[in-house]
TrEMBL record, chains A, B:
Catalyzed reactions per annotation: (6R)-5,10-methylene-5,6,7,8-tetrahydrofolate + NADP(+) = (6R)-5,10-methenyltetrahydrofolate + NADPH
GO terms (BP aspect): photorespiration; tetrahydrofolate interconversion
Function: Catalyzes the oxidation of 5,10-methylenetetrahydrofolate to 5,10-methenyltetrahydrofolate and then the hydrolysis of 5,10-methenyltetrahydrofolate to 10-formyltetrahydrofolate.
Protein family per UniProt: Belongs to the tetrahydrofolate dehydrogenase/cyclohydrolase family.
Pathway note: One-carbon metabolism; tetrahydrofolate interconversion
Molecular-function annotations in GO: methenyltetrahydrofolate cyclohydrolase activity; methylenetetrahydrofolate dehydrogenase (NADP+) activity
Domain Tetrahydrofolate dehydrogenase/cyclohydrolase catalytic span(s) in chain numbering: 10-126
Key words of the record: Hydrolase, Multifunctional enzyme, NADP, One-carbon metabolism, Oxidoreductase, Photorespiration
Pfam families assigned to the protein according to its UniProt record, in alphabetical order: THF_DHG_CYH, THF_DHG_CYH_C
Origin organism lineage: Eukaryota, Viridiplantae, Streptophyta, Embryophyta, Tracheophyta
Signal peptide coordinates: none
Protein name (record): Amino acid dehydrogenase family protein
C-alpha cells in the first residue's frame, strides 16, 4: 500500500514493541534495585466476549514485560457491593499497583461512576478518575495516570519527532476517554488547540488549519482529504466497521479519516485499522 | 463614551445587581421553606491590603443577599497545620456551606495545594479543587462548584441572549482560575473552541475567527481591533495598570482588549475596568 502514497505510514506496532522492550528493561532494573515487581489487577464483571478478549490481551501484555497480572472474573449478577469490596481490598494490597475495571459494566444494576470512583487515584491506571482528569487539566499539577489512548497518540508524536509546542492541533471528538484528555495533553505540550465536535459548523475549515490532527469520533471516513493541510501529521483513533460484501466477514474496518485521500496530502498518517502488517 | 461607538457596552454591574436580587429572593424562600441560611467562611492569612479588601467585599456581598458570613483572620506566621485545622473544623460544621481560602497564601512556609485540597469538595465554592475541575471537564459529570470568574463570563453570555451552541469561541489565556475553566464551560455549552496562549504563533488570525472572545491574559491592550471579527461578542477579563501621568494615581487601568479599536468592530464588549458608571 505504501508504494503509491506520499505520506509516511505511522508504524504504531513497531513503536509499541520498542516501548515494551523499554518497560521490560525498566521492570527488570526495578526488581534488582528495590525488589518490587509491579502488579496489575483487572476486574471483569459478566461474560461479554469482547471484554474477555481485551482482558486476555492485557494479561498477555503484562506477561511479556514482566508485570504480575491478576484477574478477577465475577458473574454478571454480582452486586455493586461485591465489586466495591474487591476494589477496597486491592486498594489496600501493596502487591497491587494498578486496578483496571473492564468497561462496560452490566449497568442495569451497578453504577459505573460509583465503581470507578472507588479505585484509589494512585492505582487508577486508566486515569479516568475525575481527580486525575482535574490534575491533567490544571497547570502546575500532575495526574498520577493519563488515559492510555490519548497518551499513546502523544507518544507517537514524540517518537516520530513531531514538534508540538506552538503548533496548531485539532482534536476531533471530545469523549472522556480519548478526545478530551488528548486536548488536555496537547495543551500541556503548548500546542494551540481547537476542538471539533458534532455541533461544530465548519469542521473542514477548522481541521484544515491543523499541523497535527487527532481524530477520535467514530464516524467512518468522515475526515476527507480536503480537510487536511498539506504536510499535516494525522493520528486516526477511529475503528469503524463498514459493510463490504467482498470481505469474508461482510464488513471491513476503516478509520475516521478517509485513508485513500488523506495519505496523498498528510506528511504522516496512521494506517487503516488492521491493514498495516510489516 | 457609548455615543461614538457601535458596540453595545456589556453592563456587568446591572447583571450583577439582578443576580443579587434573585439570590436574595432564593435565600429568603429557602429560609422559609427549610429553615436553612447559607453560611460562607473566608480564611485570610496575613495582612495584605488587597486581600483584606477582597475579603471585605465578599463579606458585604454576603450581607446584601442574606448569606451568613464568617471571617477567620490568621497572622502571617500561622503554621500550615493551624490553617488545616480550621479547614477541618469548617468541613464538619453544618452551618458552613462554603469555605474560601483567600489567595495568595504566605507561600514561604505553607503549601497552597495542600491547603486548597483540604477543603471538602462539597464546600469548595471557589471550584479550584482538582476533583471539581475534573468533573467540569468530563461529559456526564457535574462539578459541585465552578470558578466564579469564568462562570460570570458565561452568565454574561446567557443574560445577553448570546447563543453559544455551535459558535466559534476563542479563549485567550489558559490559567487555572479563568482561561482553562472558561474553555471547559464553553465546551459544555457546545461551542467550538480554540485556545490562544503565549506559545500561539498566529493569535490574531485565530482570534478573528471567533464569534465569542473571552480574554484573560493580563496583557494591556494586546487584542487589537484587527483581531476581532465584526460583530463578535467580547468579554475582557483583564485588568492591567498602564502608566498615565494624567491620572492622579500615575496609572490607569485597561483591559487585555484595546477598547477604543474593539468597540468599533465588536457587537458587544465589556467596558474598560472602572470606567463604566451608569
Amino acid at each position: 500500500m505504501a508504494a503509491d502514497t506520499s505520506a509516511k505510514i505511522i508504524d504504531g506496532k513497531s513503536v509499541a514493541k520498542k516501548i515494551r522492550d523499554e518497560i521490560t528493561a525498566e521492570i527488570s532494573r526495578m526488581k534488582d534495585a528495590i525488589g518490587v515487581v509491579p502488579g496489575l489487577v483487572v476486574i471483569l464483571v459478566g461474560d461479554r466476549k469482547d471484554s474477555a478478549t481485551y482482558v486476555r490481551n492485557k494479561k498477555k501484555a503484562c506477561e511479556s514485560v514482566g508485570i504480575n497480572s491478576y484477574e478477577v472474573c465475577l458473574p454478571e449478577d454480582s452486586s455493586e457491593q461485591e465489586v466495591l469490596e474487591y476494589i477496597a481490598s486491592f486498594n489496600d494490597d501493596p502487591a497491587v499497583h494498578g486496578i483496571l475495571v473492564q468497561l462496560p459494566l452490566p449497568l442495569y444494576h451497578m453504577n459505573e461512576q460509583t465503581i470507578l470512583n472507588a479505585v484509589c487515584i494512585g492505582k487508577d491506571v486508566d486515569g479516568f478518575h475525575p481527580l486525575n482528569i482535574g490534575r491533567l487539566a490544571m497547570r502546575g499539577r500532575d495526574p498520577f495516570f493519563v488515559p492510555c489512548t490519548p497518551k499513546g497518540c502523544i507518544e507517537l508524536l514524540h517518537r516520530y519527532g513531531v514538534k508540538i509546542k506552538g503548533k496548531r492541533a485539532v482534536v476531533i471528538g471530545r469523549s472522556n476517554i480519548v478526545g478530551m484528555p488528548a486536548t488536555l495533553l496537547l495543551q500541556r505540550e503548548d500546542a494551540t488547540i481547537s476542538i471539533v465536535h458534532s455541533r461544530t459548523k465548519n469542521p473542514e475549515e477548522i481541521t484544515r488549519q491543523a499541523d497535527i490532527i487527532i481524530s477520535a469520533v467514530g464516524q467512518a471516513n468522515m475526515v476527507r482529504g480536503s480537510w487536511i493541510r498539506p504536510g499535516a501529521f494525522v493520528i486516526d483513533v477511529g475503528i469503524n466497521p463498514v459493510e463490504d460484501a467482498k470481505c469474508a466477514r461482510g464488513y471491513r474496518l476503516v478509520g475516521d479519516v478517509c485513508y485513500e485521500e488523506a495519505c496523498k496530502i498528510a506528511s504522516a498518517i496512521t494506517p487503516v485499522p488492521g491493514e498495516w502488517v510489516r
